[in-house]
Amino acid sequence: MSHYPHYAPITKEITAAIRARLGAEAVVTAPDTLAEYAGDASTLRFTPELVVRAKSVADVQALLQLANVYRFPVTPRGGGSGLAGGCLPSLGGVVLSTMGLNRIERIDTKNFIMQVQPGVISQTVRRAADAAGLFYPPDPAGMDQSTIGGNAATDAGGPACVKYGTTRDYILGLEAVLPGGQLISTGVQTRKGVVGYDLTNLLVGSEGTLAVITSLILKLLPRPAATTGMMCVFSDMVSAMKAVAAIMAGGHLPSAIEFLDHKCLALIGELLPCSLPGGKPSMLIIEIDGPQGQIDVEMEAICSLAGEAGAVQLIKAASAEERQKIWAVRRQVSLRIHDYAKLYIPEDIVVPLTAIAELVDALPAYERQYGIEVFAFGHAGDGNIHLNITTQDPALEEMARAGTRALLELTLRLQGTISGEHGIGIAKSPYLSMELSAGSIQLQRNIKKLFDPNLILNPGKIFPPC
Ligand SMILES: Cc1cc2nc3c(=O)[nH]c(=O)nc-3n(C[C@H](O)[C@H](O)[C@H](O)COP(=O)(O)OP(=O)(O)OC[C@H]3O[C@@H](n4cnc5c(N)ncnc54)[C@H](O)[C@@H]3O)c2cc1C
Questions:
Q1: Whole-structure pTM over 0.85, yes or no?
Q2: FRET label pair with 224: which of 69, 292, 343, 385, CA 20 to 30 Å apart?
Q3: Strand order in the sheet with 226-234
Q4: In this structure, which residue's CA is closest to atom 51 in ligand 1?
């Protein structure tokens, strides 16, 4: 039996009721525009019956109240850059765009706080903090498209995570509209607070299934005085991972330590400022930040450790522009994989640091068994590996999905987790029970029902439909 009730289709009466409460300009019915909201950065597609563009908290409240009266689903959507289909209306209904809630409400430089609406683009948040002489560390690679509300809903991470943690670590408090339409505040505006259950951390990462986030209190840090970076080329992945282990064990905490496998390097080879050795080379991109004198000394130490682990080339960025060029190359990887493959399944597993090399070493056997090609890159410092499972023959999709499941099983055997930052959405919900016990899933479904008795907010996400 389905866990979801029968939802009302969006009728003329419902559309008129939404227009009457939110204003005609908030409601989109043009098929071409609806089609623009049918996808995200995954390969999934579901066209909404209606799109509502909220301009105020009251709009969000009114829409959710109507959804409970008429029983239609509402799917929150930020920048649509998600990789798991979380913002897609898989059970029909209305997509609620939060992009119009896009004000930076205040930056309090004395208390290191920024208050923002959810539709502010993530990169804008970082730049605003920087302009105020402060630092907002989360740096998901899709930050030019994603919103801060979407980052909170997915607990987005990024290269800086190894040193600074994920979005969750920078959210002190939230305002959010519950599925019934009530506005609540959670958390604090202070550096600490333990009053009652931690609802902020329950909403962060809940993928828009428990509430619509309408305001965020972000924690800011002092801006690091300086940053320096480099690329290290190794002749194989094992040496690169030895370097990662040696750097971390040596007491260094880089602000990024990313890796690319030989397949990714082959796709971006011509963009690199160096030639690559034959065989199966791999690369680390390392950044450190802090006082200039300190990071110069630390970079020398890291170079020595990388050399001892077998680095064959060390290319230091001499300026901020050169550092930006390194990141531009890194950002090209997923786009090139996307262009290269006819079928592309993006997974973002995490394994203990000591298991990265074992996992990457095991990939060729899985490629042979399932007829797939796997491109691996990611955040070596926190064991988060983006496994991009591809095939050039879409007819082999079933095999590719079987290969994906087998790789997730391997991840769990290595004491890892099936998603480090992209979330479950629709794409990974078939795998949820591989990691979570039946009791844990039931408890989470009960929490969902407590927040959303009529199951109108983003149904069909995280939990499999039945
Ligand atoms: C090129 C590229 C690189 C990427 N790199 C990274 C990376 O390094 N790290 C990483 O973590 N992710 C990465 N992603 C994935 C994506 O950018 C993140 O998941 C991001 O947090 C999604 O934000 P969004 O605003 O686009 O959300 P959407 O895709 O619109 O929505 C994502 C989820 O959030 C919910 N949601 C959105 N807004 C709200 C709100 N106001 N209230 C409640 N729920 C809401 C939606 O319902 C959905 O479940 C990348 C994506 C791309 C395309």
A1: yes
A2: 385
A3: 311-316, 226-234, 282-290, 256-260, 373-379, 384-391, 343-350
A4: 142
